[in-house]
Fold this sequence. Notes:
Layout: H1 2-9, H2 35-41, E1 61-79, E2 86-90, E3 96-106, E4 111-118, E5 123-126, E6 139-154, E7 159-179, H3 180-183, E8 198-219, E9 224-231, E10 234-245, H4 248-253, E11 261-269, E12 272-280, E13 285-294, E14 301-306, E15 316-320, E16 326-336, E17 341-350, E18 368-379, E19 382-393, E20 396-398, E21 409-426
Amino acid sequence: MKRILSSLLALALPVSALAAGFALEDGSVRGNAVPGELTAKGGVPSAQYFNPAAITGLPGTQLEAGATFIKPWADVKTVSPYTGTTSVGHGHSKVWSIPNAYATHQINDALFFGLGLYTRFGLGAKFPSDWAGRYNSIKAEILSFDLAPVLAWKVSDRLSLAAGIDIRYFDIELSQQIDAAGAAGLRPYNDPAPSPYDVRQTFHGDDILPAVDLGATFKVTDTVTAGLAYHSRIKYHVKGDAKWEKPPAVAAMAPQFFNDCDFDAWNYNPDKVMAGVAWDATEKLTLSAGLTYTLWHLYDDLVIHVAKPELMGRDKVTSEKKWHDVFRASAGASYKLSDEWGVRAGYTFDQSPINGAHTDYLVPGDDRHLFSVGADWTKGAWTVDASYFYEVVADFDVKGDPKHGTFDGKFQDASGHAVALALIRRF
C-alpha cells in the first residue's frame, strides 16, 4: 500500500514557492481563479475541495479530472558570519504537477454524494548539497494524498449542509548536511565554507489518519449566496528511517556516531476555515470573494527522536517554528460569453505563517500575490476548464542563527507560473 501511494505522490510534488507554509490551495482548476465563487455556490465537482456542501447544485452524475502544473523559482542570499562572504543559493526549478479528481452523484432530490482525490498539504524545497545553507536544509519534501467521501443534504432551496471524512496519507523527507569538522572543533561550527567532512542526514517517514470536512451554503437572496466550510486538523505520528552518509574519514574516526536507525516525530496539518460569497450581478456576470483562515500556531516546533543517540551523543533534533495563524483572501469575477464559453479572473493575497525569529530554509518564502485568469468551453455533456496564474513572492530578510545553519541574508526573487487543465463529464 505504501509503495502504491508513493507512486501516486510522485506525480503530485508541489514546491514551497507556491504555498503558504506547506498548505496548498490548488485542488481545483476553476478554483485557481475564483475560489470564493466555488466555496459559495459551486458549479463544478471540484467545488468539494473548498466546500462539500457546494455539490448540491450538481444534477445527475458528474466526473472531473484535472491538474495544475507549476514552474517556480526562488533564491536565498546568505552572508557568512566568519568571512562576510555573500553567496546566493538557487532553489532547483522544474515543472511540478498537482493532480486531482472528483465524482458527484445525486442520490435523490435532497441527497448528494461526492468523492475527491487531491492534496491539501505539500512542500518541495531543494538546494545543492554544497550550498551555504546546507547545514540547515538541502531537501524538504512533504507529500500528501487525500481520499475524501462526503454526503451533502439540500435542506431547502436556500440551505445545504454537508459532512465527510478525509483520509490523508502524509509522507515527509528532510535532508541536511552535518558539519562533522565543526562539531569536532576543527573549524567554526557550521562555517558555510566547503568541507570534505560533511555528513548527509536524512529522515524519511509517513503516517495515515482521517480528518473531518464540514460545509454549508446559504442563498441569502435570489442573487447572493454564501458558503462556509471547516477542514479539521490532523496530528501525525510520523515514523520511518534515519540515515547518514559519512565520508570515509568520519566513519573511521567516529564509528559510534551517525549509524542508521529508526526515528519518530509529531507533525500537524492545521485546521482550515474557508468562507466565500458570490453575487450574480447580472445573468452573465458573477462577482465573488473568498477567505481562508489556517491555524498554523499548531506548528510550534519540530522534534525528531532517533532510536539511539547517534547524533554526536544526542537522541533528538529540535527545530523551533512558532508559526502564526494566517489569512488567504481572494476576489474574482466570472462572465458567461455564450452558452459554450465562460471566462474568469481573480486576485489572491496569501499571508505567510513564518515567524521571522525562527526562520529556516525549509520554506524559503514570504507573503504572496497571485494574479489569475481562466476560461471554460462546454459542448454537450463535456466541459474543458483551463486557468493560468502568476505568483509574486515578497522578499524576506533573514536574521541568521549559525547554530542551526542559517545566516543573515534574504529570500529573494521568488515567483512562479502555473497552468491548469481539467475535463468534466456529465451523465
